[in-house]
Amino acid sequence: MGVADKMNRGGLFTFRFTEGNEPKFINAEKLAEIDPKGKDPFVVRLMYINQGGKFGPHGVLAGTHGKEELCLDCPAHMTEDIKEWMKDPEVAAQANGGKLGVVAYKYDTKNDQRGYSYGLRFVDLV
Hints:
4 helices
């Protein structure tokens, strides 16, 4: 691949939302409510950085859970990782093939008034 080809290529991800669909945004807590045992992963099809987030730029995973197209807002600490993953052809190929999933989990923490918070764990889908 020449330098011009590298500069002209679009994003590595091929997923597009169904025309006319306005995807719903959820967070890790909502995903944990939908799938409390982590048995039905959210299928990651696209990653991007939301530049206009309420708390500044943050990563978003777009994809499907069941038949519903959703956008999953990621915790702020994942933003830099997502920027790197967005450039990784292996990550993109797995997402484009519907082979990348994520599940939410609840964990105890002293850093949250509630005493718990939610995290995301990536899983390979076969």
